[in-house]
């Protein structure tokens, strides 16, 4: 008789960069279990409102459930307040949502990204039980160890010995950010078997949302 | 870390995928059903231009025993929605009952609402996810197919509540045997028509028949197009075993 | 405790245009305790041949000595300098001799061919399974970080100065993410008739 394991790891990588007047979110589209690919067409990015998106790697069953939970809360908020929940409010909401399952955790690596009321970019990442971090650039998932040092190198002003807080410099434009995340995912797909197929980049500015896709390695 | 399951292959099921340290049931208060008994193996799903086709053989295996030879593993839900199952047959029958009940409730509401492939896929995901969260999993993976607002929809679902969509899919042993073939065929012929999709689906079953001891040459198809859904009668294909003569060392 | 990460440390090597570079960090640890901050893991095996040996330090030092002995013997009997290719083969055989109960090391080789000046870079596992067709080689406790950085930052035909900058950025940013490596780094840039060795400062935490 067996011991049932309710968890699985479906791989995948998500990343986000917050700028002065934009936020950029990226995800690959591979969904795998063990050494087999379940789907090559599943980007792990989920828009929650006009200015807020959720992106999440980890166990896809939990990811889907969490997304549903957040969508429901967003809907209830709209009915009650007549406007969409702000990005900051969604970031605050995710913490108790994750911690509520402290003793049977959602096995997820989430990112919330969006614009604040002034149109500035905001990014937050969480561990599976809800500990938040508010960095201007973030990467979660199976290739985070490969890519995080690269983003640190290119954005985080870590080229010197100074301990500059991890913030995106004002001169980091959306075009540069797109280039960085594209390179990051190309590098990740090169060496991480759980990252690949396509990368979806979603750029949110005051003008609206723009989504682009690029091919990655499919092996 | 999470362990990997292939729920549909007795071959893999016999492997010690179960952690030895937990295997003792002595002194354990309660054991839910935590392994399948009578089970179906791979199913195939292919989306084509204007519809989808699902295919499955008709065996119900009991471990390595071919216990039931002619059981349907496809379900026609309504004119736009069909379902294919692999894994535990009893759990599938329970799901069939749940679907029938919900269908009846919808019918009685008389508001014109009925299952669509997307809604069935989403609902099934919740059922399976909730079961796994209670540590009492429904030991199935499913392929949901049909037309969603006239657009072909193909959704996959595993016993842990992992759901996804793709233009082609296979469960269980089919992930290894049929998926590569399906990917290749759809790459060569992205605008596949119904006839081609049927052929591809049947050939996938044929490949499985040759290499998967749990499968058989008795199979069933279901097709959804704008004209509605059809659950076809059970058919058989002939195996071609000429190549078997070239295998040496077992005679 | 994992012997590969007990002492901590990383090594990376990269090909350039008629040059090659190899770098390692300076930390020597005992588990989570840092016991030394002046311990590079790259060893000179010839005028244009360097060997990086992150892993269990006692094994690294043993391997260096045993290997240097074999290299000396080879060069005496052949009366010529050993080529990086031959050195790689020698190391592979040496490691595989201990197939059951090997040295807990992750070797990286960087060198220039003494005849053709062709850059040579390789990494192998503790049993001597190596890969030679890559433009860079990484090993140690920050292997993934190094690999990701190399993949993103490296480009073909880097001149010695650019190669130095690239490999320095790679090792600097990789060890900043690794608690078991860091405390400065040493970079050797190997050219035809010259080896430039530089020490770079990193965060010391």
Automatic annotation (TrEMBL), chain A:
One Pfam family here: Proteasome
GO cellular component term of the entry, any: nucleus
Coiled coil: none
Intracellular or extracellular location(s): Cytoplasm; Nucleus
Domain of life: Eukaryota
GO biological process, one term: proteolysis involved in protein catabolic process
Main location: cytoplasm
Gene3D superfamilies hit by this protein: Glutamine Phosphoribosylpyrophosphate, subunit 1, domain 1
Annotated keywords: Cytoplasm, Nucleus, Proteasome
Described function: Non-catalytic component of the proteasome, a multicatalytic proteinase complex which is characterized by its ability to cleave peptides with Arg, Phe, Tyr, Leu, and Glu adjacent to the leaving group at neutral or slightly basic pH. The proteasome has an ATP-dependent proteolytic activity.
Family under the similarity heading: Belongs to the peptidase T1B family.
Subunit structure: The 26S proteasome consists of a 20S proteasome core and two 19S regulatory subunits. The 20S proteasome core is composed of 28 subunits that are arranged in four stacked rings, resulting in a barrel-shaped structure. The two end rings are each formed by seven alpha subunits, and the two central rings are each formed by seven beta subunits. The catalytic chamber with the active sites is on the inside of the barrel.
Protein name: Proteasome subunit beta
Species assigned in the record: Hypsibius exemplaris
From TrEMBL, chain B:
Entry keywords, A to Z: Cytoplasm, Nucleus, Proteasome
GO cellular component, one term: cytoplasm
Subcellular location: Cytoplasm; Nucleus
Annotated InterPro entries: Ntn_hydrolases_N (IPR029055), Proteasome_beta4 (IPR016295), Proteasome_bsu_CS (IPR016050), Proteasome_sua/b (IPR001353), Proteasome_suB-type (IPR023333)
GO biological process, one term: proteolysis involved in protein catabolic process
Source superkingdom: Eukaryota
Similarity comment: Belongs to the peptidase T1B family.
Job description of the protein: Non-catalytic component of the proteasome, a multicatalytic proteinase complex which is characterized by its ability to cleave peptides with Arg, Phe, Tyr, Leu, and Glu adjacent to the leaving group at neutral or slightly basic pH. The proteasome has an ATP-dependent proteolytic activity.
Subunit structure, interactors included: The 26S proteasome consists of a 20S proteasome core and two 19S regulatory subunits. The 20S proteasome core is composed of 28 subunits that are arranged in four stacked rings, resulting in a barrel-shaped structure. The two end rings are each formed by seven alpha subunits, and the two central rings are each formed by seven beta subunits. The catalytic chamber with the active sites is on the inside of the barrel.
Protein name per its UniProtKB record: Proteasome subunit beta
Upper taxonomic lineage: Eukaryota, Metazoa, Ecdysozoa, Tardigrada, Eutardigrada
Automatic annotation (TrEMBL), chain C:
PROSITE patterns per UniProt: PROTEASOME_BETA_1, PROTEASOME_BETA_2
Keywords for this protein: Cytoplasm, Nucleus, Proteasome
A GO biological process held by the record: proteasome-mediated ubiquitin-dependent protein catabolic process
Matches recorded under InterPro entries: Ntn_hydrolases_N (IPR029055), Proteasome_beta_3 (IPR033811), Proteasome_bsu_CS (IPR016050), Proteasome_sua/b (IPR001353), Proteasome_suB-type (IPR023333)
Matches recorded under Pfam families: Proteasome
Domain of life: Eukaryota
An annotated GO cellular component: nucleus
Oligomer status and interactors: Component of the proteasome complex.
Protein name as it appears in the record: Proteasome subunit beta
